């Protein structure tokens, strides 16, 4: 009798334990199932986003960027902020593979080769029309120096631009004259 | 912080506009963004840079004048202290305590008592007298040291090219 009353609680404990065990077993595949989802997320990282961050911070490793992007769900702004805040990016685990890896050496060597020659100042400041206009009036001295500082913001801006243009045009004229002098002086 | 920086930049802009140093024009490209400037520097006379105008972009940090701006030439400048991408490497643009080689005096480096004007004047004299202790452009430095005539020819050609001749 005494043994039997002891057995009922034991049976209850056994049932509870086995129920928990079954539940645990059933829950496990679900948890494991969420892992491939995480791996999928890694694949979804847009290489363009990595490029975007890498362009902003050329000193950073693309792999570090990709890892940080993966961890924050491809949030470029968050990664940028993190770098700007001075918190460095974490070093990704060795198992981490960069999505569509693009070898950095090629892009780095390609940059200087593709580096376009800088446009000249006349093109840059759109001065070709003023160049011919000013060539005629080279003899007449430039207008008396206006006061460069103005209380009016747009006027200031215009003054600044005018001073820049004058500086370039003056240099160009001077160089042209020098060349002319050289050419006419050479045969003599 | 940012507002005190832009106030200071505005003051410097005013100073540079009303009393510009010889051969230097500088100011913000637009007053909407006081932290991005453009400067024109005239090539110093008596050097191969003579007659040239060298535009450069200055980017100021939000904590200016605690930290120095960065400076990048917008035309090709063949010079031992200018990187191929135009970035200028000069001691006044380096924050104090940021010199791993310890060849620069602290007094030469950036401090809040420096100014845009001082930077631009320093860059102008740098054009005249390269410092080949720490070349940014090793090839140019080598040429400057060993084949001065070739170096000066490249510089002169760049000047002509930049003025559209």
Query: What sort of overall outline of chain B do the alpha carbons produce when their principal axes are compared?
Result: globular
Q: What would the CATH topology of chain B be?
A: Ubiquitin Conjugating Enzyme
Largest sheet: spatial strand order of chain B: 1-2-3-4
User: Spans of chain B of 5+ residues with little confidence (pLDDT < 50)?
Assistant: none
Question: What string, H for helix and E for strand, traces the elements of chain B in order?
Answer: HEEEEHHH
Helix content of chain A: 55-70%
Content-based structural category of chain A = mainly alpha
User: Which descriptor suits the 3D outline of chain A?
Assistant: rod-shaped
How far apart the termini of chain A lie comes to 137 Å
Chain pair forming the biggest interface:
A-B, 30 and 27 residues
Oligomeric status of the shown chains? heterodimer
Strand content of chain A: under 5%
What is the count of β-strands of chain B?
Answer: 4
Let me know the CATH homologous superfamily of chain B: Ubiquitin Conjugating Enzyme
Tally of distinct domains of chain B: 1
Give the termini separation of chain B.
45 Å
Subcellular location (chain A): Endomembrane system; Endoplasmic reticulum membrane
Protein name (chain A): Coupling of ubiquitin conjugation to ER degradation protein 1
InterPro entries (chain A): CUE
Keywords (chain A): Endoplasmic reticulum, Membrane, Transmembrane, Transmembrane helix, Ubl conjugation pathway
Write the layout of secondary structure elements.
The complex is a heterodimer of chains A (188) and B (165).
Chain A: H1 2-43, H2 47-56, H3 62-71, H4 76-84, H5 104-114, H6 121-124, H7 128-136, H8 153-185
Chain B: H1 2-18, E1 24-30, E2 33-42, E3 53-59, E4 70-73, H2 116-128, H3 138-146, H4 148-162
Antiparallel strand pairs in B: 1-2, 2-3, 3-4
Helix pairs in contact in B: 3-4
């Amino acid at each position: 009798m005494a043994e039997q009353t002891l057995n009922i609680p034991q049976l209850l404990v056994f049932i509870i334990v086995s129920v928990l065990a079954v539940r645990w077993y059933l829950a496990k595949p679900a948890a494991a199932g969420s892992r491939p989802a995480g791996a999928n997320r890694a694949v979804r990282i847009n290489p363009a986003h990595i490029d975007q961050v890498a362009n902003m911070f050329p000193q950073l490793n693309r792999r570090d960027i990709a890892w940080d992007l993966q961890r924050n769900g491809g949030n470029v702004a968050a990664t940028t902020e993190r770098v700007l805040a001075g918190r460095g990016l974490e070093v990704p685990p060795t198992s981490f593979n960069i999505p569509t890896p693009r070898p950095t050496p090629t892009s780095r060597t390609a940059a200087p080769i593709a580096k376009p020659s800088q446009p000249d100042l006349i093109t840059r400041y759109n001065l070709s029309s003023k160049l011919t206009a000013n060539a005629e009036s080279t003899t007449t001295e430039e207008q008396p120096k206006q006061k460069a500082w103005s209380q009016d913001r747009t006027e200031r801006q215009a003054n600044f631009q005018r001073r820049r243009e004058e500086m370039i045009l003056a240099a160009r004229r001077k160089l042209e004259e020098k060349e002319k002098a050289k050419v006419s002086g050479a045969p003599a | 912080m940012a507002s005190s920086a832009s106030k200071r930049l505005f003051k410097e802009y005013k100073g540079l506009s009303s009393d510009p140093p010889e051969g230097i024009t500088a100011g913000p490209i637009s007053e909407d963004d006081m932290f991005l400037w453009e400067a024109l520097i005239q090539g110093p006379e008596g050097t191969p840079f003579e007659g040239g105008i060298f535009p450069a972009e200055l980017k100021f940090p939000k904590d200016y004048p605690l930290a120095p701006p960065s400076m990048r030439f917008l035309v090709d400048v063949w010079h031992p202290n200018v990187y191929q991408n135009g970035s200028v490497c000069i001691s006044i643009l380096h924050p104090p305590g940021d010199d791993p080689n310890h060849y620069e005096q602290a007094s030469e480096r950036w401090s809040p008592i420096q100014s845009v004007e001082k930077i631009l004047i320093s860059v102008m004299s740098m054009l005249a007298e390269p410092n080949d202790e720490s070349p940014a452009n090793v090839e140019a430095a080598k040429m400057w040291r060993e084949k001065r005539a070739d170096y000066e020819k490249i510089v002169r050609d760049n000047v002509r090219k930049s003025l559209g001749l």
